[in-house]
């Protein structure tokens, strides 16, 4: 069994002639890992590279010993990597239930796997809104739907890109509780975040990305205690942070 669930080595990614990821090295075990950085640093590009959504990627990203680079998105999902994209990417005209049924494959769920019924138990608010069109949901409800959709692929690793984006503080608090619950059930997580408070509440391990490289790996406690690091790499301080 590999020492790390996810092992990224010298990963490079491009948009046309633009060299976005410039030799990313990062490992992830069973514990959550939060990836922080200012806008435009390559965090979303890393997520997309890991789930097979970029055409030009070189280097290595091994998940549970299997190489992800060069595989198609559906193959990566089948291997056990789930993805919650930035902005949710839901279909406004489909109902909540239609979203979940579209993704669900009963044959792959297994006895303890995720099903639409289990998603509704986990997210009671979605059960209440199951026949509502996704475009009519609140931001928090849409994020629940995006997470539920990803869980239906029965991932062992969940990659989430800015899950708290655009959500009110009270909804963010609930989201953190939900994600902590999933982590306690053994689901590994790579969480890209802008909010320092959310990142440090979800993960003890923190990585910071600057211009396509991981420039610092630290702990939540150490980062929260070091205002100079927050200002240098993130442009925030505890007094300015919005929880």
From TrEMBL:
Keywords: Amino-acid transport, ATP-binding, Nucleotide-binding, Transport. InterPro entries: AAA+_ATPase, ABC_transporter-like_ATP-bd, ABC_transporter-like_CS, BCAA_Transport_ATP-bd_LivF, P-loop_NTPase. GO terms for molecular function: ATP binding; ATP hydrolysis activity; branched-chain amino acid transmembrane transporter activity. Gene3D superfamilies: P-loop containing nucleotide triphosphate hydrolases. GO terms for biological process: L-amino acid transport. It holds the Pfam family ABC_tran. PROSITE patterns: ABC_TRANSPORTER_1, ABC_TRANSPORTER_2. The keyword ATP-binding applies. Transmembrane segments: none annotated. Residues 6-236 form the ABC transporter domain. Belongs to the ABC transporter superfamily. This is ABC transporter ATP-binding protein.
């Amino acid at each position: 069994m590999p020492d790390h669930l996810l092992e990224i080595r010298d990963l490079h990614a491009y948009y046309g002639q633009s060299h976005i990821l410039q030799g990313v090295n990062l490992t992830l075990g069973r514990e959550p890992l939060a990836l922080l950085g200012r806008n435009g640093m390559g965090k979303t590009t890393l997520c997309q590279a890991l789930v097979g959504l970029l055409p030009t990627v070189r280097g290595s990203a091994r998940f549970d010993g299997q190489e992800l680079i060069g595989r198609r998105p559906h193959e990566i999902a089948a291997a056990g990597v789930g993805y919650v994209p930035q902005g949710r990417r839901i279909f406004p005209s489909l109902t909540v239930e239609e979203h979940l049924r579209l993704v669900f494959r009963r044959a792959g769920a297994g006895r303890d796997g995720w099903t639409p019924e289990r998603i509704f138990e986990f997210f009671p608010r979605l059960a209440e809104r199951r026949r509502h069109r996704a475009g009519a949901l609140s931001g928090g409800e849409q994020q629940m739907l995006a997470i539920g959709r990803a869980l239906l692929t029965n991932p062992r690793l969940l990659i989430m890109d800015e899950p708290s984006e655009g959500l009110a503080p009270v909804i963010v608090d609930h989201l953190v509780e939900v994600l902590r619950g999933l982590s306690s059930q053994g689901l590994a997580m790579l969480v890209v975040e802008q909010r320092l408070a959310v990142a440090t509440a979800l993960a003890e391990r923190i990585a910071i990305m600057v211009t396509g490289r991981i420039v610092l790996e630290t702990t939540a406690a150490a980062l929260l205690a070091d205002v100079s690091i927050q200002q240098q790499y993130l442009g925030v301080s505890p007094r300015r942070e919005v929880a």
